[in-house]
Amino acid sequence: MAALGEVLPEAEALSWRPRVDAARLRHQGRLWTLSAAFHVLPFGFAAALLMWVQPLALPVALACLAHAWVIPELYAQRGANVLRPRPRAADAPEQRSAGLLGDLLDHEARDLHARTGLVLEPGRLGTWIVGEAGAMLLPGRRGRVYCYCIKVDPRHPAAGELPSGDRIAHLLLALRSDEHGFATVANLSFAGARWRLRRRLHKELRPALDAAVARLAHASTRTG
Amino acid sequence: MSRLIRMDHTGHSTVAEWTADDPAAVDAAVEAFRAELDRGYLAMITAGPGQAEQVRELPVDADLVILRLPIAGG
């Protein structure tokens, strides 16, 4: 990653947004957990109360529990969608863009991109998985994952025509130049349990998440 | 040979090529570089493994300068 002094111009334009750093990231994660609890716990309490008042209300209590289960799943699905592949361009531009992206990556990352269409990028905040219209951040070995919606600005006329490799390369170059600014510009669409998110990811994309976890495990083994 | 490339619908296009000892080619590249910035592109160079840097003037000694579009939260 580039020096901390360099600020992404897109982040400069969003002066009202607090710049994301590790502390802010943790704060956002806690807010997401709190928000999820406020959505889920009332249904759990309602189910328990119904069963206590009237056991014959079992079907309604089960419906409450189903709601309590489904709401975090829907959030996780929204998070998983940030890495969903977008419609492909013609073969030639796709290959050409993949070639340019490959030049920006090491052998291991190129191989992962060929298998999953995603790019793994280590950063200061954690390990990133970069897709065509979003990115995920795994700050540590255990627990939470942050999913961000971020893409080439659709207001630019040329944005919609880009092949997949170029869409990723745009995000990757921005991430590499200012990781904190990248996380500031991006919209957080989910922060929550990794296990829940993994189940919502397309099967073909899961190796990227597994590789990110393995990289974090390897890094923590080396440091500690 | 240094290259200025723009990511676009073809994958990427070469906007300019130059060598540092060819002033005419450098001038043409600088002009093309400024024109692309005026169109809203941002210029990036790689600054080592996993590092990139935005440049506002054409770095004549760079091997590769990549033009990208701005990004935005989705």
Mean pLDDT of chain B: 94
- Total of domains of chain B: 1
> How would you spell out the order of helices and strands of chain B?
EEHEEEE
Global morphology of chain B: globular
Query: Count of helical segments of chain A?
Result: 9
So what's the overall shape of chain A? elongated
Q: Mean pLDDT of chain A, nearest integer?
A: 92
Low-confidence stretches of chain A: none
How is the secondary structure organized here?
The complex is a heterodimer of chains A (224) and B (74).
Chain A lengths: L8 H4 L9 H32 L4 H23 L10 H13 L3 H10 L2 E4 L4 E4 L3 E5 L5 E9 L11 H14 L1 H7 L1 E7 H7 L5 H18 L1
Chain B lengths: L1 E5 L6 E6 L4 H16 L3 E5 L5 E4 L8 E5 L2 E3 L1
Parallel strand pairs in B: 1-5
Antiparallel strand pairs in B: 1-2, 3-4, 3-5
Question: What does this molecule look like?
Answer:
The complex is a heterodimer of chains A (224) and B (74). Chain A is an alpha+beta fold. Chain A has helices spanning 9-12, 22-53, 58-80, 91-103, 107-116, 164-177, 179-185, 194-200, 206-223, and strands at 119-122, 127-130, 134-138, 144-152, 187-193. Chain A is elongated. Chain B has one domain (2-68). Chain B has a 5-stranded mixed beta sheet, covered by helices on one side. Chain B is globular. Chain A binds chain B through residues 1-2, 6, 8-10, 82, 89, 92-97, 99-100, 104, 106, 121-122, 133-134, 148-156, 158-159, 161-163, 165-166, 169-174, 176-177, 182, 185-187, 189, and chain B through 5, 7-12, 40, 42, 44, 46-47, 49-54, 66, 68-74.
